[in-house]
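Reading a protein record of the kind used here takes only a little practice. An example makes this concrete, so a full record is given next.
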Amino acid sequence: MTILIDTLGKAARHNMLVQAHCRKCGRQAKFLATDLVRFYSPGRRIETLPFKCRECDASDCRIVPIEFITDRTRETIVWRPTKVKQPG
């Protein structure tokens, strides 16, 4: 039986990564779904997460959940989301 991973909560429950891929420049970044649940609702659909490319400043990103395979991957860079309070 296969499960459709369509929400952030489901991805977090299965210890998955969320990959944001910029359609304009091709840059990609991976985040732990459990980290993203701290900032967004677990019921939020994954493809609606608001990502903005740091390189080209575009917000046209393809967001997909991917399996976090530790035994076959040599090295994976995982970014940690932070919320920064603006001065003023």
Summary: Helices lie at 8-13, 33-36.
